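Batch 3, record 17
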Amino acid sequence: MTELKQRILTAVQKPARYTGGEWGEVKKNLSDVRVRVAFCFPDTYEIGMSNLGMRILYGVMNRMDGIWCERVFAPWGDMEAEMRKNHLPLWALESQTNVRDFDMIAFTIGYEMAYSNILNMLDLAGVPLHAKDRVGLKNIVFAGGVCAFNPEPLAEFIDFFSLGEGEDSTVEIVSLYDRAKAESWDKDTFLKEVAKIPGVYVPSFYRHEYNEDGTLKAIVPLDGAPEMVTKRIIEDLDSAFFPTEMIVPSTEIVHDRANLEAFRGCIRGCRFCQAGFSCRPVRKKSPEVLYRQAVQTLEHSGNNEITVSSLSTSDYRGLKGLTDQLIPYCAENKVNLSVPSLRADNFSRELMEKLQTVRKSGLTFAPEAGTQRLRDVINKNLTEEEILNTCAQAFSGGWNNVKLYFMLGLPTETDEDVLGIAELVYKVIQAWKENAVNKKRGLRVHVATAYFVPKPHTPFQWEKQITPQEYLRRCRLLKSHFYSKSIVYDYHSPDLSRLEAVFARGDRRLGPVIETAVKNGARLDGWDEYFNYAKWYDAFRQCGVDEDFYTTRGYGEEEILPWDTIDVGVSKAFLKRERHRAYEGQVTPDCRHGCAGCGANRLLQEVACDA
Amino acid sequence: MPRALFEKVGNARYISHLDLMRVFQRAFKRAGLPLTHTQGFNPRPSVSIALPMSLGVESRCELLDFELEHPCACDEICGRLNAALIDGVHIREVYEQGDKLKNLALLQSRLILEYDQMVPDGATAKIENLFSQPELIVEKKGKNGPTQQDIIPMIRRLSVKRLSDGELEVSVLHSCQNPSLNPMQLSAAITRYLPDLAADYVRCFREEIYDTNETIFR
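Prediction for the assembled complex:
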């Protein structure tokens, strides 16, 4: 007779997401395994398997002797319903073992909208949600990823956080656990020891005290915990582990291709961008190593597509050297090479033509703001001239599709800036009229505006978020100035960005809100099919927490911030300086035109910042 | 064009038809057996699978047609592909040239009907009787909504056997092209006309393929 799980698999959408068994998955003999790690991605298989960070750390852990790391993803709603109906707890893919039987449970958290999934997955696994209710060494829950740079909303659920790049620290953490398990330590002892590993932050070792107005009064380290925990980085990316033996999903995922990482960090300093600051300092990989890893990855995986990724690939000095080697290899082996995140400079334009990526996807620009004044405020170093020149060239080459991305609600934004977006769009249309070779095919300009979310560890970390009503007013204002049929304007409902803003700068009082919302049924919040702000609204009311405190209030420069315990390398003094320059409309040149003194280079001991 | 006979069993039965094509395209690359590509704006590797299968069905008799850039001995293709394939997808044999697909006519399928309680009394005879009627209308889901379909003309032979206290086996030889019968329709017919015999779970297997004279097709 067919077992229950197999029967359910026949009844749900895309069952291959739940079975494991892909090419490249790591299986181990249980008799050789001392520590089992359930590596959870708090979203669906298609999203999680597209994440390079998870692939790297999966490889890092499985290279360790006696350690077996398996993957776990959030089930889609139909599967969750079956699991709950049939009392099937959440399992890991490789061995199909229940998550609650694992020693360590790890999460990688890339965006705030995954918080509900973390709790829901623990609940589906049958693991107690609160760190204090998990008493032994078993089921230690730890987390990393960008969201760990302000981990406070999750403080009561996660035993410890691993800050920054995990190639080295994960090995140290898991090795320590291996020893702790062999020597039967209690959880307290383990947490005290793990806190000594650089980059590890144990939230229960800090007491947060509040003023009457709700702001933080003090963050008190307990039992000799360090006042600040500094994120970890890899200094030499060439010698760092890279997963050339990647898992190849048997079902289609979002980014279904091999992935190369050209460098880490960013020289640009766009003042709203969390990755741009929190991933510093800049460290590169050599084109030789990248080429070798590309060939190995493609040969092992059989992929027919590879992408070179980074925060701003045009800034990679080795780009010409790498593509000169990769383009012929890919042509010979019928592999598509894609190089996203290119700027509008001359070399990039030539490269785009060689790759023919433009033909497929059209041009995409992210000016973020409609006027040069506001682009200077946010330090977005992209001029109207660059946009229009590139568009003109593309139009004369026969292309007729442009995407333009903006944000509304940026600091100092006025209606003039909002209408500046419309003006820029009209100039693009004008450029098409003047340059298009075949006007019969018509032009499509896709314009999208996002609702600005202030993020920690950026110069805008103190800023107010505008109210949802004001955001919608600006959207409508903009829309009323779009007269051309060529324009497709798309703006998101503000609810998601408002919630994202709450959690991005949230504190420990949000823990009960997340828990309540999940009890109310919140999950898969990154998906339109599931996101329902009403569930969150109710949770905020039930817990007596006001969203505005975290969004429209703005944070004082002298205020203690929930993430003040976390050091990502960039100094607070630098962020303040950048904020003040923003208000003066002063741009800060990119790091290659002079070091702006962000402070992240102090994380480097062996090499210099490669800006 | 060379042809491979392969099986798709175990957890691989949850891989969809389109995904399975991708699995093969990558496996050929891993095996160092580059495929030719179709001409045109969007070149695609030339692989095709004869009879697309529903999710969840297992098979020992699937056919894959492909074209290699460099000719290679059949045995070698078989060995190298199998080394590059995932669990559950396995090449049984490779042929230099297959028969014309239009001659593929019949499929031997096997359904296992699982009953969580017990197989109801007299089930074997009742089911055999059901399928001996001159006409049996079942609802078929199509692109333009459900249609009614008589499945009897598509059944060449059918027998029912009790496998255990909880399992019945339905063996059926049926047409698989122009028109094709999805054997899960047999289970739908049982549910519709013999509701007391509706199974709690049904597994479906493809056993063998034939031409219209019941000669094994390759």
